Amino acid sequence: FVRVMRHSSIRRVAGVMPKCLTDVIAVVSTLQDGNFTDARQTHLPALGKHIGKSRHWHADVQRDDLIWSASRFAPYKGELVCTMLDRCDDVYVAAWALLASARRCEDAKEASMIIRQVIPDFSVRLNVECVRAIHKT
Prior knowledge:
With 137 residues, the protein is mainly alpha-helical. Helix content is 83%, strand content 0%. It starts with a helix and ends with a helix.
């Protein structure tokens, strides 16, 4: 039973982590486009929800006894998952900070221009490639 549950938890982490990265892309893209309402109401709440689910299932995998981490399972890279979730948290907090700053700005176009300077377009393309690679594995 525990083997089945552990395998299920690993699959759940693998299923939710790409959603976090997709949400990161959506948040950054909407901020760069100046669509602050969409970022605030849609993409950031989704990112927060997916980070929470990923952390829940990652913790579930970590709680399992080492006896059940048999060689049948693909190696689980817990440190990688933790690092990726920490970076998603960083984006989440930074995006809220950028939204708060943009709200104080008189002109939304000026705010999005500043955001585009802070977050270059190549970082969005890099994240897109990472998500594609994760979906292929």
